[in-house]
Design goal:
The complex is a heterodimer of chains A (about 500) and B (about 350). Chain A has about 500 residues and is α/β, with parallel strands linked by helices. Chain A contains 17 helices and 24 strands. A six-stranded mixed β-sheet of chain A has the order 6-9-10-3-11-12, sandwiched between helices. Chain B has a domain of about 240 residues. The chains are: A alpha/beta (about 500), B mainly alpha (about 350). Chains A and B meet through helix 10, helix 11 and strand 20 of A and helix 9 and helix 10 of B.
Chain lengths: ~500, ~350
């Protein structure tokens, strides 16, 4: 069978760092081909080479058998290669059609022929089952819809080969299913797809073949039908990976976090947390399951003091922490792994060592009478870097230079090391690869086993079901059900998350 | 880390060289002899002890103005108001200098502190407005410059003189002037202010790099969200950063009031020292010790330029062009980094 894309022995070097070491990727026409690798394995580099953003230092690219030189993204477009970026490149205030035609507007007598463009977009959308309204404003449509606009953009430009860069990272479980249908429709119409991902489940479900890369090297290409998630994970990470995190049954103790009747409004004055009740006991992990935007972010920010709540009560170890400043709450015994590690978790321009004392810099031994003790700070940093396997050249390296997984490990190390009674982990594994996820889950369970209370907020059902001892389902700012992960299914959780009432008793805690 | 230090040092040095080269092209095109021009400049800045004294004297306020800009910059703020803070500092120092009669050990520090306090107060206003109402500090500080200029002029006319154009001379007990320094520099206007400026550089370095307060200020400057998450008081740190920056600017004004001039005159326009402070901070990479060097460069250029018309027939304005070119090359440091990396590659 003929290959539409062949990348043969591609080599790309940055300084002393070999990002792609003779990687070969061959994509057949009409297949969905997964590109699997850990963060920093070289997936993005390889795709940027294909898309003309980087020039390879060695190797050859062929499109439909013809050797080509892709010197910039326009050349890639002309060759029928389209990229659906992870971070959407859309103008919020423009309509769907305006965004799609941007850069290649059809004109009639010097004016943009918007009618014709809308018609074309509508036809494309119907043909691939995208159900996009060409006249809607980007600001008013959901993230899933915006992604479809990105897909339409590439189709409108005549793409035959679509590169999807981690497309499911921002989607809800339902949206992921819809995206999978769309990808199948695209392939049926003769398109080829390269799917960049580190989610094994998606590969097993939708892909035909998979190419695994590890630390810049091509490990091999497999038929998905002939492999299984365990084998893929082992190939990707280079060792055996355990998906089901082993854990002993929880031994819950006294109540550590008690939330009663909590009401939080967002900046626009809309009630986003609505008379919410929740308790987390020592020695248990409570997972909050829910679709993004049902008040999880505001709940966590209200508990940690980052935003002010309207009313209700929050107690930590019996002490009232409602609307206290963050430092008081931290000192009362709370650790917080924030959802957005770049915004809240780290000062990216600080060395990783200085980030390790972000909440403790004013205490001994890190400072004395207002003078910092860098010896103690960097000693602590070295200890945490070793203990939490943070891969960094040294403790003086800027936090910005670390990969996402290592930044996250650094934050977790810092928070766990302060030995808090309650650890709040918001999306702790977002965007991380299986190796890092496994590590982080182990650490959360370790905290539980040491008798700490852990509150886990995640949009990944697998994660919530795997790690939690109890699952609290949040919907429109309320906890609508508390379920036992051993007795529930993804289907049931999915329905609860979508707002359907539970048949059994015990709707709220 | 070493390589960033390397570039941080070499980018300004390269920019200065490129500025000098581009400046000579301008001189040649305009029909002047660049070798004669630069020789005159060099002689006028360092040629004998008098010129050296003048250069150091001119360097003094530049150091403090540069520190003021850099301190704000390192804490995430853009203080364009150094000029205004400098003027009110100047006024406050002279006011204390003429109104009291105290022993020198009290009077001089008091006058310097008054200048720092005035500059700090002038900077507090934009700091407070930013912290409390999120008003951008650039806009407020620019407006505060004009207010400073006209308010001080009014005070000089109505309070410090009887509808005159300058205040009385400060008392000897508040003066930074030094007969010793003047005598070893062939009676230049060199005064003890340079010591205060150098201490200021050490203070800025120590405060920012070694103290918990500096850690907070830097953290807030880089990432307010993470600072809030870490339990720091973001608004208070913003105000404090502005206040400290303003204090440095105020002391820069005291250098003029207590050292160089010994009084304050009604000004038709800005002194320019505060605005040059922005360039000094930029060329000094916002680093306390880099600023000492770049202030020295500015001082030398400004003082040396005075020699150019008489000995080389080159107008002083050309020095302004050279300064502008240097700033241009520092600002386009991306270009220089590119050149440097090319250079390194070929050198290998």
């Amino acid at each position: 069978m003929e290959y539409v894309i062949e990348m043969l022995n591609i080599r790309k070097v940055f300084g002393n760092f070999v990002a792609n070491d003779n990687i070969t990727l061959q994509v057949k026409k009409g297949e969905i081909h997964a590109l699997l690798g850990e963060n920093g394995a070289g997936k993005s580099t390889l795709m940027n080479v294909l898309f003309g953003l980087y020039q390879p230092d060695g190797g050859e690219i062929r499109v439909k058998g013809q050797p080509v030189k892709i010197s910039n993204p326009n050349v890639a477009n002309d060759l029928g290669i389209g990229m659906v970026h992870q971070h959407f490149m859309l103008v919020d205030t423009f309509t769907v059609t305006e965004n799609i035609i941007l850069g290649s507007e059809p004109t009639k007598g010097g004016k943009i022929d918007i009618k014709r463009a809308e018609q074309e977009v509508r036809e494309l959308s119907e043909r691939y089952g995208l159900a996009v309204d060409p006249t809607a404003k980007i600001a008013n449509i959901s993230v899933g819809m915006q992604q479809r606009v990105e897909i339409l953009k590439t189709l409108y430009r005549g793409a035959e080969i679509l590169i999807f860069d981690e497309p499911t990272a921002v989607l809800t479980p339902q949206e992921i299913q819809e995206l999978i249908q769309i990808m199948r429709a695209l392939v049926r119409e003769g398109k080829s797809i390269i799917l960049i991902t580190h989610k094994l489940k998606e590969i097993m479900e939708v892909c035909d073949r998979v190419t695994v890369i590890r630390r810049g090297k091509g490990i091999g290409t497999l038929n998905v039908a002939d492999t299984n998630p365990n084998e893929l994970a082992a190939l990707m990470v280079g060792r055996e990976v355990h998906f089901k995190t082993d854990k002993r049954p929880a031994q819950p103790g006294k109540e550590v976090l008690e939330i009663k009747d909590l009401v939080v409004k967002d900046a626009r004055g809309v009630t986003v947390v609505d008379h919410l009740n929740l308790t987390v006991r020592a020695g248990e992990i409570v997972g909050i399951a829910g679709v993004d935007g049902n008040g999880q972010t505001e709940l966590v920010e209200a508990i940690t003091g980052l935003i002010k709540a309207e009313s209700g009560s929050i107690k930590l170890n019996g002490q009232d922490i409602f609307n206290l400043p963050p430092r008081k709450i931290t000192e009362a015994g709370m650790g917080h792994i924030p959802q957005d590690r770049h915004k809240h978790g780290l000062v990216l321009d600080f060395p990783i060592g200085e980030n390790m004392v972000l909440q403790t810099y004013y205490k001994e031994p890190y400072s004395k009478k207002g003078i910092l003790n860098f010896k103690a700070i960097y000693e602590k940093a070295r200890q945490l870097i070793a203990e939490f396997d943070v891969r960094t050249p040294d403790e003086y390296t800027q936090a910005r230079a670390l990969s996402g997984g290592n930044q996250q490990k650094a934050i977790i190390g810092r928070e766990v090391d302060r030995n808090p009674d309650l650890l709040i982990a918001a999306q702790p594994t977002r965007g991380l690869d299986v190796g890092a996820i496994e590590f982080i889950h182990k650490r959360l369970i370790e905290q539980r086993d040491q008798g700490k209370a852990v509150l886990l907020v995640s949009f990944e059902l697998d994660e919530v079901m795997n790690v939690s001892d109890r699952i609290a389902v949040i919907y429109e700012g309320k906890i609508v059900a508390i379920v036992d992960p051993k007795e529930t299914t993804e289907q049931e959780l999915g329905l609860l998350m979508a707002g359907s009432k539970r048949k059994e008793a015990g709707v709220s805690s | 880390m070493n390589s960033t230090r390397f570039t941080n040092f070499f980018v300004p040095v390269f920019a200065v060289l490129l500025g000098v080269i581009a400046g000579s092209i301008v001189m040649i095109v305009s029909g002047y002899n660049p070798i004669a021009g630069y020789s005159a400049l060099l002689y006028g800045a360092f040629g004998d002890s008098y010129y050296i004294g003048e250069t150091i004297r001119q360097t003094t306020p530049y150091i403090l103005a540069g520190l003021a800009v850099a301190f704000a910059f390192r804490t995430g703020l853009f203080n364009i108001g150094v000029e205004g803070q400098l003027i009110v500092g100047w006024l406050a120092s002279v006011w204390v200098g003429v109104s009291f009669d105290l022993p020198k050990v009290i009077h001089l520090p008091l006058a310097v502190l008054a200048a720092a306090a005035a500059g700090a107060l002038w900077a507090f206003i934009p700091g407070f407005l930013k912290a409390r109402f999120k008003v951008h500090e650039v806009i407020i500080t620019i407006m505060m410059n004009y207010i400073a200029l006209h308010v001080t002029n009014a005070i000089i006319r109505s309070v410090l003189s009887d509808k005159g154009f300058k205040s009385a001379k400060i008392h000897e007990s508040a003066s930074l002037q030094s007969e010793f320094l003047q005598s070893i520099t062939d009676y230049s206007t060199l005064h003890y202010g340079i010591i205060i400026a150098l201490i200021g550089a050490v203070v800025m370095w120590f405060l920012l790099e070694k103290t918990t307060k500096g850690y907070e200020l830097r953290a807030v400057g880089f990432n307010q969200h993470a600072s809030r998450y870490a339990g720091m008081n973001v608004p208070r740190n913003i105000i404090l950063a502005m206040v400290i920056s303003g204090a440095f600017a105020g002391v820069a004004g005291a250098m003029e009031g207590l050292g160089t001039f010994g009084n304050i005159s009604v000004k038709a326009g800005f002194t320019g020292v505060g605005f040059d402070g922005i360039a000094v901070a930029l060329i000094g990479s916002n680093n306390a010790f880099g600023i000492i060097l770049s202030a020295l460069l500015f001082g030398a250029l400004k003082v040396g330029a005075l020699e150019m018309p008489s000995s080389a027939d080159v107008p002083t304005e050309l020095v302004d062009i050279v300064i502008a070119l240097i700033i241009f090359f520092v600002a386009s440091s991306y270009l220089i980094r590119l050149l440097l990396s090319r250079f390194k590659k070929e050198g290998k």
